[in-house]
Each structure stands twice: as structure tokens, then as C-alpha cells.
Amino acid sequence: MAIAPPRGRPNVKLVRGPFLKFEPHPDHVVDGESFRELCARLRDAPEPPLLVADLFSGAGGMSLGLERAGMKVVFGADHDPDALETHAHHFAGFSAGWDLGDPAVVAEVGELLRSVEIDVLAGGPPCQPFSKAGRSGMRHLVRQGIRDAHDKRRDLWESYLEVIRLAKPRVVIMENVPEMALDREMFILRTMALTLEHMGYSVRARVTEAWRYGVPQFRQRLILVAMRDGRSFDWPQEVAKKVTVMNAISDLPVVEGGWRPKGGARGWAEYDGPRTDFQRAMRRGVSDNSVGRVYDHITRPVRPDDLAAFELLDTNMRYSQLPESLKRYRDDIFDDKYKRLDGDHLSRTITAHISKDGYWYIHPEQNRTLTVREAARIQTFPDDFRFAGSPTAAFRQIGNAVPPFLAEAIGRQVIRTLNAPPQRALKTHETAGKLASWFDSDPAWAPWLRTGNRWHAIVGETLLGTETAANVRSVWPHLAKLSSPPELLVNRETAREVASWIGKDSDLEQLILAARRSEESGTPWTVNDELLAELVAEKVVSRVAAELAMIVDAEGEEPVIATAGALRVAGRFELGRERWLTNRNTDGRLAIGRLIGFADNSRRAHLGLIALGATVCSPKGPDCGVCPLEEWCSYERADRGRKDDSPTGA
Questions:
Q1: Among this protein's residues, is 617 annotated catalytic?
Q2: How far apart are the C-alpha atoms of 523 and 531, rounded to whole Å?
């Protein structure tokens, strides 16, 4: 039987014409010899700029930002032909439509960039998830510093690492979606960081909100910066206040949906001039004969039923609240299908989806979706930057781009770092080594995490995770005999008596329930990932206890666990205070990952960090004298400074 399509699903048309075609940049090159000659000329300048290669460049948001910071982009590569034409028009050098998933192409790119001693390699490689089996094999190779040399089409982030290995740039800048880093194990990010450290780089990574660098939208991005020769990199200073949507676009003329200027691709809308500092920055590169013009201020037509919906829609209204007669989509699935942007706040993230229908981006005051120029403004592309292809292609290029303002802030900080006296950055193998050794030195702490037994980890963390050392010493020998769910069920009366000694009767009953669930699963001797997920979902076992169980199992994943204690250590270590983490699942886990690394000792380092937060780095104040991270810790240095500045020096 045929399945009926969703109610009233429309055929949303692409935005037609005008189609822009561009000539390449005057210094565009098409072969390796010309490329090397161009780079040699730039090197011979009185003040030679840093030379940049931008892989997965798109239209050139990263390229534009780095050039505005003072660098020179000489190489771009992307698979989108419209984006490649845009990049070739605006930037010198190579703009190559090469397949960076092909090992032969990767080798050619790496050697070409090495031949000109490229300074900065930038890019945002797409990432695909790995199977657990694939992760296990790759984890072993990375930890041993071994390169997977067999001939296969690489995942593109692996290709990116291979180009770095071959080209040996002074600086690596990577931009990507936060999801690349924030899976349970943070596998790709930790793999990249360890691989780069093997190559001699120091690595910093952060999930950054683009609005903190003047971008008028809520856009979270993962930024990784790696400096060769171990230089320390600090993040650039943030802007004082947010730039709102109307700060960015209020100067652009009123147009109706579907409006097109006379003259096709050469047509324009009349323009009265900028009103805000942001708008003046957007107009800075406009030529004298275009001062009264704005290009690409066009968008898709508005259907009559959409117009009726847009007229009712305010910034707080959801699609599901529209009258039934105006709904063309199921509101249980598309609750936020239409979104009018709030002119006094940030835009929602501009993504490539804007090329499909634009309903997420309805103008704050006009009953239409955003124009190409408005979307470009919100991404911080200036008004003299135009996009090859159709308006639909332009929207796609804009949505896929790195905001130039964000790239410029990173680029300026890179230049400052390279021009400053070198300061050695701390690498993860150093902090991880200290944490692992400290954990190994005191077997009395959390013995349930040392046996490699998942059930031990759950029992010990549930019953003894917050107990004193004395209670642990007296109680654990009895609990250690309960090494599997069946053994708890057989000995549950004895276990109840032991739990009563420390007032954990109700917690023990939860463990008995968990053991019964294990018995029902048909594999009572195996506490596998699926059972753990079910126990957490049913609130039988705490998430922390389940994740600790995964860490102690040498064959399983290594999830990065953001316990309160681990976050406290990371916050004090990084900035001298614990209340700096805006989100424990983003910057908190990244900070923890940076301390524990991904080498062979990362499990023990992670357990050591958790132990440190539970026993030494307490909420009331740390016992710095016994902390393995004391010599590098910002909190310890700040505390020493406070004592030195006190009247008594005490």
C-alpha cells in the first residue's frame, strides 16, 4: 500500500537568478611552478606576511578573516565549484577543486605546501563517526605514534592531519562544529590533539560562541589552534557587547520578497549609508562608485499563505501557535518551522539550510525571509564580498562559512603569539603523567577503580564514593567480594548488613535492583554498555557510576566524565578559579580532556583527576602541597601572590 505524503508539504523553490560569474584574482595560479614563484615573491617583500593554506575553504570566510588579520592566503581547496569560483576571485594563488579524501592528492598537497614552507594551515574538515572497533584500532596506532599507512580513502580529518605531517606549518587552525569534539569519548578531538603533540605541536581547543568576537548570531564553533615548537597560545580578548541583528542590517533598504534589481547580476538597490559601527565596518571596502549601492539584496518570493503567516508571527511565536489554516507542515515535527528573528538580539545560527527555504530566518520587521546580503552581514562578510553562482548557491556558501570576524580574531592572536617572546606550553602527556603517577602512588583511594571490574566500580562508587578514607578501608574488603551481580544477589543479606554500617541501605537496594536487571538481561556476569545505558535511563544507577565503570574497563570506551571535583580542578588549574565553566558538557569536558590526554595512561590520569577533586582540591580550598599539578596550577600561583601581597606575607 502506498504511503501518503505529509499533509500539504510544498515544493519549496530554489532562488533563481541572477547568476554571478567571476574572473579569477589577478594573482591566481594554476600549476605548482607558478605557485612556488608567487610564494617566493611574497617572501621577498620587505615585511613578508605569513602564508596561509585554507583547506575545505568554502567561499573563504576563514581566508578573509586571516587576511584581515595581516596574513596572505595563497592556497584554497574545496569540492563546491561555486565556492571555489568565489575563493579564486577574492584570493591569490591556487584555488583547487581536489579530492582531499584521495591519499595521492593528500600527498601532492602536503608536498606542495612543504615546498613553499607554508606558515599557517587552516581548515574545517568534515567528520564521520567511528565504530567502536575502528576506534580501538586507531587509538592504539595513535598512542604508539604510528601512522596508518595502508592505501584507503581517508576520513577527511585524517587527511587534514596527513597534510600537516607533510607540510609542517608553523601554525594549525581548525574550525568545526562542536559535535566533532563532544561525543562521549571526545574521540576525534583527543586523537587529533595527541597526533599533533607527536608532531611537536602544542594544542589548545575551545568551543567558542562567535558573538563574543562581534558576530551577530548565536553560533558555537570548535576552534583548535596548534603551535609548532611548543609555543603557548592564549585565546583572543572578547568584545565588550553583543552586536544585534538590527545593528547589522537596519541600514539595508526595504525590499519585498522576490524583488530583483534591474540589470541582473550587475543590478543593485539604492543605499543611503551606514548607521552603526558594525555597518560602517561592512562598507569599508566598497569602491567610491558603489557608495550609494548595495548588491545581492535579494531573496526568494513569498507565497500568499506564507505572507499571511508572517504577518501574524512575532519573535516569540512558534509555528505550532499559528492558525491551522496557515500550517503546511506537521507542527508536532516542525514546531519551530518558522522563526522571526528578534532585531534586538542575536540571530539564530546561519547554516546552509538557509539555501533550502529560509523559514528559520524571517526578517525582524519585514514579511519575508532574509536576503543574500543580510545573511552575509550576519556572517560578517562585508558588502564588497560577492558569491559566485545563483542566490541559492550564495546562501549555501554563506551558511557553510567561518564568520570572518571570528577568523580575524584568531588570526590576530596567532600573529601576536608568534611575535612575542616564546613561552612553552604545557602538553597533555605531562599533566596526564603526573595525574596517573599520583593515582598509582596511593592504592587506598577508590580501590574499586583499580580492579578493572565494572561491577566493582558501580558498587564502590555508589556506596563509598563520598565516604571517608577510614570507612573505605574498613568496608571495601567486604564489598570487594561482590564482584558480579549474581554474587550480590546470593549474598544480599550480608551486603545489607555492611551497607547499614555506613547508612547506605537505600543505595544498596538500588544495586540489588540493578543486579536483578542484569539477571533479566540474560548476561548476568557481563555489565555491558547497553545494560549500563538502561540502568542510567531508569535511574537505577547514577550516570557517574556508569561512566566510571566504562573507564576502568581496559577494553571499553574512555568517556570524559565531568564530575564536580574534576571540573573544580580544571577551573582552578586553567584560570585560578573554579566558577569559569559556562557549560560542563562543552568547555568543562574540553578542559578535562586537555589534562588527561589520550595516551596509554589517560585512564589512570582521568581517575587521578577525579580522585584529586574528591580528596585534595576540595570546595573549601585545595591542599596544594600534595597536588601533582601544583607547579603549573594557576590557582596555586594566584594564592601565592595573594599571600605575598598581604601585610604580613602570610
A1: no
A2: 10
Is the domain covering 248-388 a CATH 3.40.50.300 domain? Answer: no
149 or 619, which is more confident: 619
Residue 445 above 80 pLDDT?
Answer: no
Grid cell, residue 357, equals 527555504
Question: Under a CB-based contact definition with an 8 Å cutoff, are residues 296 and 387 in contact?
Answer: yes
Pairing between β-strand 171-176 and β-strand 201-209 as defined by DSSP bridges: unpaired
**Annotated catalytic residue: which of 39, 127, 624, 627?**
127
Residues 6 or more apart whose CB falls under 8 angstroms from that of 282 comprise 248, 274, 377, 380, 382, 383
Phi, psi of 319 (to 5 degrees): -55, -40
And the C-alpha cell for 390?
Answer: 545563483
* β-pairing verdict for 293-294 and 269-270: antiparallel
Return the CATH class of domain 32-243+407-419: alpha beta
> Could you tell me the three cell numbers for 15?
532562488
pLDDT above 50 (res 41) = yes
Nearest 10 degrees: CA dihedral of 525, 530, 535, 537? Answer: 180
- Domain positions in the chain are 32-243+407-419, 248-388, 453-553, 562-650
pLDDT, tens digit, 9 for 90 and up, residues 236-265: 999 989 999 999 999 999 999 999 999 888
- HEC letters along 403-427: CHHHHHHHHHHHHHHHHCCCCECCC
- Three cell numbers, residue 565: 571535583
Exposure string of 229-244, with b = 16+ CB inside 10 Å and e = fewer, is eebebeebeeeeebbb
Cell of 533: 545505558
Beta strands in 83-219 (DSSP E): 94-96, 120-123, 171-176, 201-209
Q: How confident is residue 155, by pLDDT bands cut at 50, 70 and 90?
A: confident
- Give the fold, CATH level 3, of 562-650: Endonuclease Iii, domain 2 (1.10.1670)
